[in-house]
Amino acid sequence: MAGSSHLPPGQQLGTGDIEVDVDIFDGDSAYAESTHQDDTQTLASEATKFKWEHGRRYHAYGNGEYWGPNDEKQLDAEDMVHQMFLTILRGRLFQAPIPEDPHRVLDVGCGTGIWTIDFADQYPSAEVIGVDLSPVQPQTIPPNCRFEIDDINKDWTWGENTFDFIHVRMLTGSIRDWDAFYQKCLKALRPGGWIEQVELSSHTKSDDGTITPDLPFKEWADVFLKLGEMTGQTFQICEEAKGWIEKAGFENVTENVIKLPIGPWAKDERLKEWGVWSRVYLSEALEGFALRGLTNHLGWSYEKTQIFLTQMRHSLRDPKLHGWVPLSVVDAQKPMA
Question: What Cα–Cα distance (Å) separates residue 190 from each residue in 68, 102, 158, 194?
Answer without folding.
Answer: 31, 11, 12, 8
